[in-house]
Design a protein that fits this description.
5-stranded mixed sheet; alpha/beta; Nucleotidyltransferase, domain 5
Amino acid sequence: MIISSSDFSYTLVVTDTSIKNYIATSIVHIHICNKPVIKTLHHAVNVTITEAENFAIRCAINQATSIPGISKIVVITDLLHAAQRIFDSLLYLLQIYSVFILNELRRFFLQNLNNSIEF
């Protein structure tokens, strides 16, 4: 985190999701050099917290990988188990998120073999 606050090639992504009265709220904050760059807020109805968190991670990765010059992405999330499930292709309900996220990450890693992401 200290390195990411002074290096323009790092982006810090913070996601948070909550459900209240059957309405899911997902928020994504993207920072570069300790400055907010993008803030995205989504609302959805009739979804699970895991679906909402995976959607937030998907949006975050999509936005972070589209920023020119970014080679390191650090994702901070309060639902680490949701992030781990992205890479489990056997979970049928989450496959749609996995396909989009993995496709974005594939493009990101093909741009430069030194690119990285941490959760």
